[in-house]
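Continuing the series of single-chain predictions for the mutant panel. This is the parent chain; the variants come on the following pages.
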Amino acid sequence: MRQLAFRVAAGTGVLVSTLALLAAPSSAHQRDVPVPTLTGFASLPALTFVPGSEPSGTALSTAPVNGVAAPWPDQPVQGFSGVLRNGDGTYDVLSDNGYGTKANSADFLLRIQHIGPVLATGKVDVLGGINLTDPAGLVPFALTRADRVLTGADFDVESIVRAEDKSLWIGDEFGPWLLHFDRAGRLLSAPIPLPGVVAPENPAGTPNLPSSKGFEGMASSPDGRYLYPLLEGTVAGDTPGDLRLNEFDRQTGGYTGRKFVYRLDSTANAIGDAIAVDANRFLIIERDGGQGDTAKFKRIYLADRRDRNHDGVMDKTLVVDLLNIANPHGLGGFGPVFRFPFQTIEDVALLDAQTLVVLNDNNFPGSAGRTPNVPDNNEFITVRLPASLHPDPRVLHTH
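Parent structure:
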């Protein structure tokens, strides 16, 4: 392989707490660098909640985890498993199913948070957000809530794409299903299953996919016609460590039958996200299950579906080792080598042709990768690459 605290805006009624955002000089994103280099750092405090929402964590043990005891009077702003870049410097981040399982996440409301860094002040505002709902009754099985607000006991949402009409396509792990929402978070059609693949949480069929191994990443073709959801786990009967990248045609509303294979470096690894660079190349986060000092493998690869060496799997080129990022400006108070040592790193976006945005999922309150026995914050970083990825210009466009 080649190496290539949010706060509330006055009068909005929306939380929040302060998020410190540190960045290199404003021109840093355009500078040439010899190695992948940290150009921005932010940290959303783990104990950040949506005020005036609803109690959450009531199915968790009351014994403190990393010093934090459940339940909480409000919904935590946590678990970022997908990110969308907006054209105005803000981001939409997808919170996943809550606390890890169907059984303990019935009081976690599935939500997209709208956040905006303000570099001049070193802070980020939480500008709002939307809950995901099914008011038209399109989900064919019983939901947790009578008001059809979706929860972590209904779906485990892990990946997100915005279409040109501003509707949202979300990849789920419980089906695995594709979910299509309007821009207000209302479900537009029944959940779309992946033919021949059934997760243990799916009420239909015999499972052939491990639990929590569904659509962890999802990319859109530059022209918007195709979606490419990537499974996190190996389907029974496939080569261990081989993950299916399936092609879904939005125009026909069904899968085309074409699929590509992403091979993990180790069968113990998992993927965290997948986005398109052009029609053939994808950025894919691959990581081990370690955190802190036990984190040994946290990488972003460029994966090419053209399989030019004809070995039956996507070609992989290392783009950045997230445990070895140059930090010449000492951003975040860290030393000259910055590590992103989290158990789950589930968000990547292109800021420009040579700069990545990366976020972790903090598994609140369970992960403690930054400081032992302290719940992880949700961190936001920007990384400048030494060379352009030469993306299709359309993937940098925001709808």
